[in-house]
Specification:
The complex is a heterodimer. The mean pLDDT of chain A is 97. In chain A, the strands form two sheets. In chain A, strands 2-1-3-4-8-7-9 form a seven-stranded mixed sheet, with helices on both faces. A two-stranded antiparallel sheet of chain A has the order 5-6. Chain A has a single domain, classed as Rossmann fold, CATH 3.40.50.970. Helices cover 37% and strands 18% of the residues of chain A. Chain B folds into two domains: 217 residues, Thiamin diphosphate (ThDP)-binding fold, Pyr/PP domains (Rossmann fold, 3-Layer(aba) Sandwich), CATH 3.40.50; 113 residues, Rossmann fold. In chain B, helix 2 packs parallel to helix 3 and helix 10 packs across helix 13. Chain B starts with a helix and ends in a 20-residue tail after the last helix. The C terminus of chain B is likely disordered. The chains are: A alpha/beta, B alpha/beta. Strand 2 of chain A pairs parallel with strand 9 of chain B.
Protein backbone atom coordinates (compact mmCIF):
# COMPACT_ATOMS: atom_id res chain seq x y z
CA UNK A 1 0.00 0.00 0.00
CA UNK A 2 1.26 3.46 -0.84
CA UNK A 3 1.55 5.93 2.02
CA UNK A 4 -0.10 9.19 0.97
CA UNK A 5 -0.11 11.10 4.25
CA UNK A 6 2.54 11.07 6.99
CA UNK A 7 4.00 13.20 9.72
CA UNK A 8 6.59 15.58 8.25
CA UNK A 9 10.17 14.82 9.25
CA UNK A 10 10.46 18.35 10.67
CA UNK A 11 7.66 17.68 13.14
CA UNK A 12 8.35 15.61 16.26
CA UNK A 13 6.06 12.82 17.40
CA UNK A 14 4.79 14.93 20.31
CA UNK A 15 1.11 15.59 21.04
CA UNK A 16 0.26 19.30 20.63
CA UNK A 17 -0.81 21.15 23.76
CA UNK A 18 -2.90 23.55 21.68
CA UNK A 19 -6.64 23.85 22.34
CA UNK A 20 -9.15 22.05 20.11
CA UNK A 21 -9.93 24.25 17.11
CA UNK A 22 -6.70 26.32 17.43
CA UNK A 23 -4.84 27.15 14.24
CA UNK A 24 -1.31 26.66 15.58
CA UNK A 25 -1.16 22.92 14.97
CA UNK A 26 -2.17 23.37 11.32
CA UNK A 27 0.42 26.12 10.88
CA UNK A 28 3.14 24.03 12.58
CA UNK A 29 2.42 21.27 10.12
CA UNK A 30 2.48 23.59 7.10
CA UNK A 31 5.84 25.10 8.14
CA UNK A 32 7.24 21.59 8.70
CA UNK A 33 6.03 20.37 5.31
CA UNK A 34 7.67 23.34 3.60
CA UNK A 35 10.97 22.80 5.45
CA UNK A 36 10.91 19.13 4.40
CA UNK A 37 10.03 19.89 0.79
CA UNK A 38 12.77 22.50 0.48
CA UNK A 39 15.25 20.05 2.01
CA UNK A 40 16.49 22.59 4.58
CA UNK A 41 15.71 20.77 7.85
CA UNK A 42 19.36 20.25 8.71
CA UNK A 43 20.26 23.93 8.33
CA UNK A 44 17.17 25.58 9.78
CA UNK A 45 16.99 27.37 13.13
CA UNK A 46 13.56 28.35 14.43
CA UNK A 47 12.87 31.11 16.96
CA UNK A 48 9.54 30.72 18.79
CA UNK A 49 7.97 33.58 20.80
CA UNK A 50 6.60 34.06 24.25
CA UNK A 51 2.92 33.22 23.86
CA UNK A 52 0.88 30.13 23.02
CA UNK A 53 3.59 28.97 20.62
CA UNK A 54 6.34 29.28 23.24
CA UNK A 55 6.49 25.49 23.31
CA UNK A 56 6.94 25.27 19.53
CA UNK A 57 10.47 24.01 20.21
CA UNK A 58 8.88 20.80 21.50
CA UNK A 59 7.21 20.20 18.14
CA UNK A 60 9.56 21.33 15.39
CA UNK A 61 12.34 18.82 14.83
CA UNK A 62 14.88 21.47 13.83
CA UNK A 63 17.31 23.48 16.01
CA UNK A 64 15.19 25.89 18.09
CA UNK A 65 16.15 28.96 20.14
CA UNK A 66 13.68 30.59 22.48
CA UNK A 67 13.46 34.39 22.31
CA UNK A 68 12.28 36.85 24.94
CA UNK A 69 8.79 38.25 24.31
CA UNK A 70 8.81 40.21 21.07
CA UNK A 71 12.53 39.87 20.34
CA UNK A 72 12.47 36.99 17.88
CA UNK A 73 13.43 39.19 14.92
CA UNK A 74 16.53 40.41 16.79
CA UNK A 75 17.53 36.91 17.93
CA UNK A 76 17.03 35.57 14.40
CA UNK A 77 19.08 38.50 13.08
CA UNK A 78 21.96 37.58 15.39
CA UNK A 79 21.87 33.94 14.27
CA UNK A 80 21.59 34.73 10.57
CA UNK A 81 24.26 37.45 10.58
CA UNK A 82 26.94 35.18 12.01
CA UNK A 83 25.80 32.11 10.06
CA UNK A 84 24.35 33.27 6.72
CA UNK A 85 24.34 29.64 5.55
CA UNK A 86 21.57 28.83 8.03
CA UNK A 87 17.85 29.36 7.42
CA UNK A 88 16.35 31.40 10.28
CA UNK A 89 12.64 31.73 10.87
CA UNK A 90 10.65 33.29 13.68
CA UNK A 91 7.23 32.06 14.72
CA UNK A 92 5.29 34.79 16.52
CA UNK A 93 1.81 35.71 17.68
CA UNK A 94 0.13 39.09 17.23
CA UNK A 95 0.97 40.40 20.70
CA UNK A 96 4.57 39.28 20.33
CA UNK A 97 5.22 40.71 16.88
CA UNK A 98 2.80 43.67 16.67
CA UNK A 99 2.92 45.12 20.21
CA UNK A 100 6.02 44.42 22.28
CA UNK A 101 8.13 43.42 19.26
CA UNK A 102 7.06 46.12 16.80
CA UNK A 103 10.40 47.93 16.81
CA UNK A 104 12.50 44.78 16.35
CA UNK A 105 10.26 43.57 13.54
CA UNK A 106 10.07 46.84 11.58
CA UNK A 107 13.82 47.39 11.79
CA UNK A 108 14.62 43.80 10.81
CA UNK A 109 12.33 44.24 7.79
CA UNK A 110 13.83 47.61 6.98
CA UNK A 111 17.35 46.20 7.07
CA UNK A 112 16.18 43.47 4.73
CA UNK A 113 17.32 40.79 7.13
CA UNK A 114 17.35 37.42 5.39
CA UNK A 115 14.91 35.94 7.85
CA UNK A 116 11.35 34.63 7.53
CA UNK A 117 8.60 35.51 10.01
CA UNK A 118 5.52 33.37 10.53
CA UNK A 119 3.00 35.74 12.13
CA UNK A 120 -0.06 34.06 13.63
CA UNK A 121 -2.86 36.59 14.13
CA UNK A 122 -5.73 35.49 16.37
CA UNK A 123 -6.74 38.99 17.55
CA UNK A 124 -6.13 38.18 21.20
CA UNK A 125 -3.43 37.34 23.78
CA UNK A 126 -4.00 33.59 24.04
CA UNK A 127 -1.43 32.27 26.50
CA UNK A 128 -2.20 34.89 29.16
CA UNK A 129 -5.94 34.29 28.97
CA UNK A 130 -7.60 36.43 26.34
CA UNK A 131 -6.56 40.04 26.86
CA UNK A 132 -6.78 42.74 24.17
CA UNK A 133 -4.11 42.37 21.47
CA UNK A 134 -2.86 45.04 19.05
CA UNK A 135 -4.94 43.19 16.43
CA UNK A 136 -8.13 42.97 18.52
CA UNK A 137 -10.83 44.46 16.33
CA UNK A 138 -12.96 47.44 17.33
CA UNK A 139 -15.84 46.38 19.53
CA UNK A 140 -14.30 42.94 20.26
CA UNK A 141 -14.83 41.82 23.84
CA UNK A 142 -11.69 40.60 25.63
CA UNK A 143 -10.83 40.22 29.32
CA UNK A 144 -9.30 43.72 29.31
CA UNK A 145 -11.96 45.28 27.07
CA UNK A 146 -15.08 43.92 28.79
CA UNK A 147 -17.34 46.36 26.95
CA UNK A 148 -15.55 45.88 23.65
CA UNK A 149 -12.46 47.58 22.21
CA UNK A 150 -13.14 51.30 21.97
CA UNK A 151 -10.61 52.73 19.50
CA UNK A 152 -10.45 56.20 21.05
CA UNK A 153 -9.63 54.63 24.41
CA UNK A 154 -7.86 51.39 23.47
CA UNK A 155 -6.45 52.25 20.07
CA UNK A 156 -7.32 50.86 16.68
CA UNK A 157 -6.45 47.37 15.45
CA UNK A 158 -2.91 47.59 14.11
CA UNK A 159 -2.09 46.32 10.65
CA UNK A 160 1.58 45.50 11.13
CA UNK A 161 1.90 43.68 7.81
CA UNK A 162 0.92 46.82 5.88
CA UNK A 163 3.49 48.78 7.90
CA UNK A 164 6.14 46.19 7.07
CA UNK A 165 5.23 46.47 3.42
CA UNK A 166 6.33 50.12 3.53
CA UNK A 167 9.76 49.15 4.86
CA UNK A 168 12.15 49.21 1.91
CA UNK A 169 13.98 46.02 2.95
CA UNK A 170 10.90 43.78 2.97
CA UNK A 171 10.54 41.62 -0.13
CA UNK A 172 7.49 39.49 0.38
CA UNK A 173 4.56 40.04 2.77
CA UNK A 174 1.32 38.09 2.42
CA UNK A 175 -1.73 37.69 4.67
CA UNK A 176 -3.57 34.38 4.53
CA UNK A 177 -5.79 32.26 6.77
CA UNK A 178 -6.23 28.68 7.96
CA UNK A 179 -10.02 28.88 8.11
CA UNK A 180 -10.69 26.45 5.24
CA UNK A 181 -8.84 23.86 3.10
CA UNK A 182 -8.62 26.46 0.34
CA UNK A 183 -6.96 28.95 2.66
CA UNK A 184 -4.73 26.29 4.19
CA UNK A 185 -3.38 25.44 0.73
CA UNK A 186 -2.84 29.14 0.00
CA UNK A 187 -1.04 29.52 3.32
CA UNK A 188 1.33 26.69 2.53
CA UNK A 189 2.19 28.28 -0.83
CA UNK A 190 2.84 31.59 0.92
CA UNK A 191 5.09 29.98 3.56
CA UNK A 192 7.01 28.22 0.82
CA UNK A 193 7.50 31.47 -1.06
CA UNK A 194 8.59 33.27 2.11
CA UNK A 195 11.30 30.67 2.74
CA UNK A 196 12.35 30.84 -0.92
CA UNK A 197 12.89 34.60 -0.59
CA UNK A 198 15.36 33.87 2.21
CA UNK A 199 17.03 31.02 0.33
CA UNK A 200 17.51 33.39 -2.60
CA UNK A 201 19.13 35.91 -0.21
CA UNK A 202 16.69 38.67 -1.22
CA UNK A 203 15.50 40.17 2.06
CA UNK A 204 12.82 40.05 4.72
CA UNK A 205 9.73 37.88 4.23
CA UNK A 206 6.63 37.42 6.37
CA UNK A 207 3.38 35.48 6.21
CA UNK A 208 0.56 36.71 8.45
CA UNK A 209 -1.94 33.93 9.09
CA UNK A 210 -5.43 34.61 10.47
CA UNK A 211 -6.04 31.84 12.95
CA UNK A 212 -9.02 30.91 15.17
CA UNK A 213 -8.86 30.99 18.98
CA UNK A 214 -12.14 29.37 20.09
CA UNK A 215 -11.09 29.22 23.75
CA UNK A 216 -10.47 32.94 24.21
CA UNK A 217 -13.12 34.04 21.75
CA UNK A 218 -15.61 31.94 23.80
CA UNK A 219 -16.85 30.24 20.64
CA UNK A 220 -17.10 26.72 19.28
CA UNK A 221 -14.44 25.82 16.70
CA UNK A 222 -17.04 26.10 13.93
CA UNK A 223 -18.19 29.54 15.15
CA UNK A 224 -14.58 30.71 15.40
CA UNK A 225 -13.79 29.67 11.83
CA UNK A 226 -16.86 31.60 10.70
CA UNK A 227 -15.70 34.62 12.73
CA UNK A 228 -12.30 34.58 11.00
CA UNK A 229 -13.95 34.63 7.58
CA UNK A 230 -16.87 36.94 8.27
CA UNK A 231 -15.37 39.42 10.72
CA UNK A 232 -11.57 39.26 10.92
CA UNK A 233 -11.14 39.22 7.15
CA UNK A 234 -13.03 42.52 6.82
CA UNK A 235 -10.43 44.23 9.03
CA UNK A 236 -7.42 42.15 7.93
CA UNK A 237 -8.19 41.20 4.32
CA UNK A 238 -6.06 38.29 3.07
CA UNK A 239 -3.88 39.45 0.18
CA UNK A 240 -0.36 39.78 -1.10
CA UNK A 241 0.70 42.98 0.62
CA UNK A 242 4.11 43.18 -1.00
CA UNK A 243 5.89 41.05 -3.53
CA UNK A 244 9.06 42.32 -5.11
CA UNK A 245 10.54 38.81 -5.28
CA UNK B 1 67.32 44.42 18.84
CA UNK B 2 67.26 43.90 22.59
CA UNK B 3 64.22 42.45 24.31
CA UNK B 4 63.38 45.79 25.91
CA UNK B 5 63.47 47.56 22.56
CA UNK B 6 61.27 44.84 21.06
CA UNK B 7 58.71 45.41 23.79
CA UNK B 8 58.85 49.16 23.30
CA UNK B 9 58.09 48.63 19.65
CA UNK B 10 55.01 46.53 20.47
CA UNK B 11 53.77 49.14 22.89
CA UNK B 12 50.86 51.15 21.50
CA UNK B 13 49.42 54.38 22.88
CA UNK B 14 45.65 54.05 22.68
CA UNK B 15 42.50 55.24 24.45
CA UNK B 16 40.75 52.70 26.69
CA UNK B 17 37.75 52.15 24.40
CA UNK B 18 40.02 51.36 21.46
CA UNK B 19 42.18 49.10 23.63
CA UNK B 20 39.05 47.17 24.56
CA UNK B 21 37.95 46.86 20.93
CA UNK B 22 41.38 45.75 19.71
CA UNK B 23 41.70 43.24 22.56
CA UNK B 24 38.23 41.85 21.73
CA UNK B 25 39.18 41.32 18.09
CA UNK B 26 42.44 39.66 19.17
CA UNK B 27 40.35 37.43 21.47
CA UNK B 28 38.47 36.16 18.41
CA UNK B 29 35.41 38.39 18.72
CA UNK B 30 33.81 38.51 15.28
CA UNK B 31 30.37 39.92 16.11
CA UNK B 32 29.43 43.23 17.71
CA UNK B 33 25.93 44.66 18.18
CA UNK B 34 25.28 48.01 19.86
CA UNK B 35 23.44 51.30 20.03
CA UNK B 36 25.09 54.73 20.41
CA UNK B 37 25.42 56.28 23.85
CA UNK B 38 28.03 58.57 25.38
CA UNK B 39 30.64 58.00 26.83
CA UNK B 40 31.43 54.75 24.99
CA UNK B 41 30.86 55.57 21.32
CA UNK B 42 34.56 55.20 20.49
CA UNK B 43 34.23 51.45 21.10
CA UNK B 44 31.47 50.67 18.55
CA UNK B 45 33.16 53.08 16.14
CA UNK B 46 36.42 51.16 16.50
CA UNK B 47 34.62 47.83 15.95
CA UNK B 48 32.82 49.24 12.88
CA UNK B 49 36.07 50.48 11.38
CA UNK B 50 38.01 47.27 12.01
CA UNK B 51 35.21 44.89 11.05
CA UNK B 52 34.71 46.77 7.78
CA UNK B 53 38.11 45.31 6.76
CA UNK B 54 37.26 41.79 7.99
CA UNK B 55 34.89 39.83 5.73
CA UNK B 56 34.11 37.22 8.40
CA UNK B 57 33.10 39.78 11.04
CA UNK B 58 29.67 41.26 11.78
CA UNK B 59 29.10 44.82 13.00
CA UNK B 60 25.51 45.92 13.32
CA UNK B 61 24.15 49.13 14.79
CA UNK B 62 20.80 48.04 16.20
CA UNK B 63 17.62 50.10 16.62
CA UNK B 64 17.86 49.89 20.42
CA UNK B 65 19.77 48.37 23.29
CA UNK B 66 16.96 45.83 23.61
CA UNK B 67 17.48 44.70 20.04
CA UNK B 68 21.27 44.69 20.34
CA UNK B 69 21.39 42.42 23.40
CA UNK B 70 18.97 40.03 21.68
CA UNK B 71 21.18 40.02 18.59
CA UNK B 72 24.06 39.17 20.91
CA UNK B 73 21.92 36.27 22.17
CA UNK B 74 21.33 35.04 18.62
CA UNK B 75 25.00 35.33 17.64
CA UNK B 76 26.05 33.45 20.77
CA UNK B 77 23.45 30.75 20.06
CA UNK B 78 25.04 30.35 16.62
CA UNK B 79 28.49 30.00 18.20
CA UNK B 80 30.19 33.40 17.72
CA UNK B 81 32.42 35.19 20.21
CA UNK B 82 30.19 38.24 20.54
CA UNK B 83 30.25 41.55 22.37
CA UNK B 84 28.02 44.53 23.05
CA UNK B 85 28.79 47.74 24.89
CA UNK B 86 26.85 50.63 26.33
CA UNK B 87 26.74 53.07 29.22
CA UNK B 88 24.50 53.08 32.28
CA UNK B 89 21.02 53.93 30.85
CA UNK B 90 21.64 51.61 27.92
CA UNK B 91 22.78 48.81 30.21
CA UNK B 92 19.49 49.14 32.08
CA UNK B 93 17.69 48.45 28.81
CA UNK B 94 19.84 45.39 28.17
CA UNK B 95 18.97 43.77 31.50
CA UNK B 96 16.07 41.74 30.09
CA UNK B 97 18.34 40.07 27.56
CA UNK B 98 21.16 39.64 30.08
CA UNK B 99 18.83 37.66 32.36
CA UNK B 100 17.87 35.39 29.45
CA UNK B 101 21.50 34.98 28.36
CA UNK B 102 22.43 33.96 31.92
CA UNK B 103 19.44 31.59 32.14
CA UNK B 104 20.22 30.04 28.75
CA UNK B 105 23.89 29.76 29.80
CA UNK B 106 25.23 31.59 26.78
CA UNK B 107 28.69 33.18 26.61
CA UNK B 108 28.71 36.91 25.84
CA UNK B 109 30.81 39.93 26.76
CA UNK B 110 28.97 43.07 27.86
CA UNK B 111 30.83 46.33 28.43
CA UNK B 112 29.43 49.07 30.68
CA UNK B 113 31.30 52.38 30.62
CA UNK B 114 29.43 53.83 33.58
CA UNK B 115 28.23 57.44 33.69
CA UNK B 116 26.44 59.60 36.24
CA UNK B 117 22.89 58.61 37.18
CA UNK B 118 20.13 57.82 38.08
CA UNK B 119 17.96 58.45 35.02
CA UNK B 120 19.70 60.26 32.21
CA UNK B 121 22.20 61.57 34.76
CA UNK B 122 25.19 62.92 32.90
CA UNK B 123 28.08 61.69 30.78
CA UNK B 124 30.78 62.00 33.43
CA UNK B 125 32.55 58.94 34.91
CA UNK B 126 30.72 57.32 37.84
CA UNK B 127 30.32 54.00 39.64
CA UNK B 128 26.60 53.94 40.39
CA UNK B 129 25.92 50.66 38.57
CA UNK B 130 27.78 48.36 40.98
CA UNK B 131 24.60 46.86 42.43
CA UNK B 132 23.12 46.40 38.95
CA UNK B 133 26.26 44.66 37.69
CA UNK B 134 26.98 42.41 40.67
CA UNK B 135 23.59 41.65 42.23
CA UNK B 136 21.68 40.61 39.15
CA UNK B 137 20.32 43.69 37.40
CA UNK B 138 17.70 41.71 35.53
CA UNK B 139 15.13 39.32 36.98
CA UNK B 140 15.79 35.93 38.52
CA UNK B 141 18.65 34.26 40.38
CA UNK B 142 21.76 34.73 38.29
CA UNK B 143 25.22 36.25 38.40
CA UNK B 144 27.48 37.89 35.87
CA UNK B 145 31.23 37.57 36.11
CA UNK B 146 32.18 41.25 36.58
CA UNK B 147 35.70 42.41 35.75
CA UNK B 148 36.85 45.89 36.78
CA UNK B 149 39.97 47.09 34.95
CA UNK B 150 41.81 50.16 36.22
CA UNK B 151 44.58 50.57 33.62
CA UNK B 152 44.88 50.45 29.85
CA UNK B 153 47.00 47.31 30.03
CA UNK B 154 44.44 45.71 32.28
CA UNK B 155 41.66 46.53 29.80
CA UNK B 156 43.62 44.58 27.17
CA UNK B 157 44.28 41.63 29.48
CA UNK B 158 40.82 41.50 31.04
CA UNK B 159 39.06 41.69 27.67
CA UNK B 160 40.90 38.54 26.58
CA UNK B 161 40.06 36.97 29.94
CA UNK B 162 36.39 38.00 29.60
CA UNK B 163 35.93 36.05 26.35
CA UNK B 164 37.76 33.01 27.72
CA UNK B 165 35.74 33.00 30.95
CA UNK B 166 32.46 33.47 29.07
CA UNK B 167 33.17 30.43 26.91
CA UNK B 168 34.60 28.34 29.74
CA UNK B 169 31.64 28.83 32.06
CA UNK B 170 28.95 29.52 29.42
CA UNK B 171 28.12 32.68 31.34
CA UNK B 172 27.83 36.35 30.41
CA UNK B 173 30.80 38.46 31.53
CA UNK B 174 30.60 42.19 32.17
CA UNK B 175 33.56 44.52 31.88
CA UNK B 176 32.71 47.39 34.21
CA UNK B 177 34.55 50.60 33.40
CA UNK B 178 33.66 54.25 33.29
CA UNK B 179 33.90 57.20 30.94
CA UNK B 180 37.38 58.11 32.20
CA UNK B 181 38.86 54.64 31.59
CA UNK B 182 37.34 54.65 28.12
CA UNK B 183 38.79 58.02 27.18
CA UNK B 184 42.24 57.90 28.78
CA UNK B 185 45.20 57.17 26.50
CA UNK B 186 47.79 54.77 27.90
CA UNK B 187 50.57 52.57 26.53
CA UNK B 188 49.48 48.97 26.05
CA UNK B 189 51.06 45.72 24.88
CA UNK B 190 48.42 43.46 23.36
CA UNK B 191 48.27 39.68 23.66
CA UNK B 192 48.78 37.78 20.39
CA UNK B 193 45.63 37.42 18.29
CA UNK B 194 43.59 34.21 18.43
CA UNK B 195 42.28 32.58 15.27
CA UNK B 196 38.57 31.98 16.05
CA UNK B 197 38.71 28.79 13.96
CA UNK B 198 41.25 27.38 16.45
CA UNK B 199 39.00 27.92 19.48
CA UNK B 200 37.55 24.79 21.11
CA UNK B 201 34.30 23.61 19.51
CA UNK B 202 31.07 24.43 21.37
CA UNK B 203 28.98 21.26 21.33
CA UNK B 204 25.77 23.08 22.30
CA UNK B 205 25.36 25.72 19.56
CA UNK B 206 22.51 25.83 17.05
CA UNK B 207 23.99 25.37 13.60
CA UNK B 208 21.39 23.13 11.99
CA UNK B 209 20.81 19.50 12.99
CA UNK B 210 22.88 17.87 10.25
CA UNK B 211 24.09 14.49 11.45
CA UNK B 212 22.75 14.91 14.99
CA UNK B 213 19.43 15.25 16.87
CA UNK B 214 17.90 18.73 16.84
CA UNK B 215 18.76 20.97 19.81
CA UNK B 216 16.81 23.48 21.88
CA UNK B 217 18.24 26.52 23.69
CA UNK B 218 15.71 28.00 26.08
CA UNK B 219 15.12 29.49 29.50
CA UNK B 220 11.51 28.37 30.01
CA UNK B 221 11.10 25.49 32.45
CA UNK B 222 7.41 25.18 33.35
CA UNK B 223 8.17 22.14 35.51
CA UNK B 224 9.18 23.72 38.83
CA UNK B 225 11.46 20.79 39.64
CA UNK B 226 13.48 21.35 36.46
CA UNK B 227 13.57 25.11 37.09
CA UNK B 228 14.78 24.51 40.64
CA UNK B 229 17.48 22.17 39.36
CA UNK B 230 18.56 24.79 36.80
CA UNK B 231 18.86 27.32 39.62
CA UNK B 232 20.96 24.98 41.78
CA UNK B 233 23.07 24.00 38.79
CA UNK B 234 23.78 27.70 38.21
CA UNK B 235 24.71 28.04 41.88
CA UNK B 236 27.18 25.15 41.59
CA UNK B 237 28.68 26.86 38.55
CA UNK B 238 28.88 30.18 40.43
CA UNK B 239 30.65 28.41 43.31
CA UNK B 240 33.22 27.02 40.88
CA UNK B 241 33.68 30.50 39.40
CA UNK B 242 34.11 31.96 42.89
CA UNK B 243 36.81 29.39 43.69
CA UNK B 244 38.73 29.96 40.46
CA UNK B 245 38.27 33.51 39.22
CA UNK B 246 38.57 35.88 42.21
CA UNK B 247 41.36 38.43 41.75
CA UNK B 248 42.60 41.55 43.49
CA UNK B 249 45.56 43.92 43.73
CA UNK B 250 47.12 44.75 47.09
CA UNK B 251 49.34 47.80 47.26
CA UNK B 252 51.50 48.65 50.30
CA UNK B 253 49.22 46.40 52.33
CA UNK B 254 51.86 44.32 54.12
CA UNK B 255 52.47 46.65 57.07
CA UNK B 256 49.27 48.65 56.72
CA UNK B 257 47.24 49.72 59.75
CA UNK B 258 44.66 51.31 57.53
CA UNK B 259 43.33 50.04 54.16
CA UNK B 260 41.42 51.87 51.47
CA UNK B 261 39.26 49.71 49.22
CA UNK B 262 38.38 50.99 45.75
CA UNK B 263 38.00 49.63 42.19
CA UNK B 264 38.50 50.95 38.67
CA UNK B 265 39.12 54.68 38.26
CA UNK B 266 38.42 55.26 41.97
CA UNK B 267 41.26 52.85 42.82
CA UNK B 268 43.73 54.85 40.71
CA UNK B 269 42.75 58.02 42.57
CA UNK B 270 42.96 56.14 45.86
CA UNK B 271 46.44 54.88 44.99
CA UNK B 272 47.56 58.49 44.60
CA UNK B 273 45.98 59.25 47.98
CA UNK B 274 47.81 56.30 49.57
CA UNK B 275 51.15 57.51 48.21
CA UNK B 276 50.60 61.00 49.63
CA UNK B 277 49.49 59.62 53.00
CA UNK B 278 52.53 57.31 53.12
CA UNK B 279 54.72 60.37 52.58
CA UNK B 280 53.09 61.80 55.72
CA UNK B 281 54.09 58.62 57.58
CA UNK B 282 50.67 56.98 57.70
CA UNK B 283 50.80 53.21 57.26
CA UNK B 284 48.03 52.90 54.69
CA UNK B 285 47.56 50.44 51.83
CA UNK B 286 45.20 49.86 48.93
CA UNK B 287 42.99 46.83 48.30
CA UNK B 288 41.66 46.84 44.75
CA UNK B 289 39.14 44.16 43.70
CA UNK B 290 39.78 43.23 40.06
CA UNK B 291 36.77 40.93 40.06
CA UNK B 292 33.63 42.54 41.52
CA UNK B 293 31.69 39.33 41.15
CA UNK B 294 32.96 37.01 42.45
CA UNK B 295 34.12 39.41 45.18
CA UNK B 296 37.55 38.84 46.80
CA UNK B 297 35.99 38.50 50.26
CA UNK B 298 38.54 36.11 51.78
CA UNK B 299 41.73 38.10 51.12
CA UNK B 300 39.91 41.20 52.33
CA UNK B 301 38.79 39.41 55.51
CA UNK B 302 42.42 38.42 56.21
CA UNK B 303 43.47 42.06 55.82
CA UNK B 304 40.68 43.11 58.16
CA UNK B 305 42.32 41.06 60.95
CA UNK B 306 45.49 43.10 60.47
CA UNK B 307 44.21 46.68 60.21
CA UNK B 308 42.34 49.08 62.50
CA UNK B 309 39.99 50.39 59.87
CA UNK B 310 38.95 50.02 56.23
CA UNK B 311 37.88 53.05 54.22
CA UNK B 312 35.78 52.30 51.13
CA UNK B 313 35.99 54.92 48.40
CA UNK B 314 33.52 54.81 45.51
CA UNK B 315 32.28 57.20 42.86
CA UNK B 316 28.78 56.45 44.18
CA UNK B 317 26.83 56.94 47.40
CA UNK B 318 28.01 53.57 48.69
CA UNK B 319 27.34 50.26 46.95
CA UNK B 320 30.49 48.09 47.07
CA UNK B 321 30.82 49.09 50.74
CA UNK B 322 28.06 46.56 51.47
CA UNK B 323 30.19 43.72 50.05
CA UNK B 324 33.16 44.99 52.06
CA UNK B 325 31.10 44.88 55.28
CA UNK B 326 29.90 41.35 54.41
CA UNK B 327 33.50 40.26 53.80
CA UNK B 328 34.87 41.90 56.94
CA UNK B 329 32.09 40.62 59.22
CA UNK B 330 32.86 43.12 61.97
CA UNK B 331 36.59 42.35 62.20
CA UNK B 332 37.37 46.05 61.94
CA UNK B 333 35.65 49.37 61.49
CA UNK B 334 34.44 50.10 57.92
CA UNK B 335 33.86 53.69 56.85
CA UNK B 336 32.80 55.12 53.53
CA UNK B 337 33.75 58.07 51.39
CA UNK B 338 31.85 58.69 48.18
CA UNK B 339 31.71 61.20 45.32
CA UNK B 340 28.67 60.30 43.20
CA UNK B 341 27.11 61.99 40.19
CA UNK B 342 30.15 62.11 37.93
CA UNK B 343 32.44 64.04 40.28
CA UNK B 344 36.02 62.79 40.08
CA UNK B 345 37.83 63.15 43.40
CA UNK B 346 41.52 64.04 43.52
CA UNK B 347 44.34 62.06 45.17
CA UNK B 348 44.83 65.03 47.56
CA UNK B 349 41.22 64.72 48.64
CA UNK B 350 41.62 61.00 49.31
CA UNK B 351 44.86 61.60 51.25
CA UNK B 352 42.94 64.03 53.51
CA UNK B 353 40.27 61.37 54.10
CA UNK B 354 43.00 58.86 54.94
CA UNK B 355 44.79 61.27 57.26
CA UNK B 356 41.66 62.32 59.16
CA UNK B 357 40.65 58.66 59.59
CA UNK B 358 44.17 57.85 60.78
CA UNK B 359 44.25 60.65 63.35
CA UNK B 360 40.86 59.70 64.75
CA UNK B 361 42.03 56.11 65.23
CA UNK B 362 45.54 56.96 66.42
CA UNK B 363 45.66 59.60 69.16
CA UNK B 364 48.71 61.82 68.68
CA UNK B 365 51.43 61.46 71.28
CA UNK B 366 51.70 65.06 72.43
CA UNK B 367 54.57 65.98 74.75
CA UNK B 368 53.49 66.76 78.32
CA UNK B 369 50.01 65.36 78.27
CA UNK B 370 47.47 62.93 76.83
CA UNK B 371 46.34 63.53 73.32
CA UNK B 372 42.68 63.44 74.25
CA UNK B 373 43.09 66.31 76.66
CA UNK B 374 44.10 69.85 75.82
CA UNK B 375 41.58 72.49 74.95
CA UNK B 376 39.20 70.31 72.93
CA UNK B 377 35.62 70.25 74.12
CA UNK B 378 34.32 66.80 74.98
CA UNK B 379 30.62 66.23 74.65
CA UNK B 380 29.40 63.63 77.10
CA UNK B 381 26.02 61.92 76.84
Amino acid sequence: MKKVFARPESLKLTPFHYCPGCGHSIIHRLVSEVIDELGIRERTVGVPPAGCAVLAYNYFDVDMAEAPHGRAAAVATGIKRVRPDLVAFSYQGDGDIAAIGTAETIHAANRGERITAIFVNNAVYGMTGGQMAPTTISGQVTTTTPLGRAPLRDGYPLDLSEMLGIAAGSVYIERTSVSSPKWINKTKKAIRKAFMVQLEDRGFSLVEILSPCPTNWKMTPVQSIRWVEETMMTIFPPKVIKDVA
Amino acid sequence: MSETKEKKKDKKLMRGSHVLGEAAIRAGCRAYFGYPITPQNELPEYMAEQFAQMPDAVFLQAESELASINMVMGASIAGARVMTSSSSPGISLKQEGISYIAGMELPAVIVNMMRGGPGLGNIAPAQGDYFQATKGGGHGDYRLIVLAPAYGQEIADMTRQAFDLADKYRNPVMILGDGMLGQMMEPVVFPDPIDPAQLPAKPWTLTGCKGRPSRIIRSLWLDVNREEELNWRLVRKYEAITAEVVDQEMYLAEDAELIIVAYGTAARIAKGGVQRARAMGIKVGLFRPKTLWPYPSEPLARLADQVDEIIVFEMSTGQMVEDVRLAVEGRCRVSFYGRPGGVVATPEEISRVISSTHHRAHPKKVAGGRASGGSRLTVVG
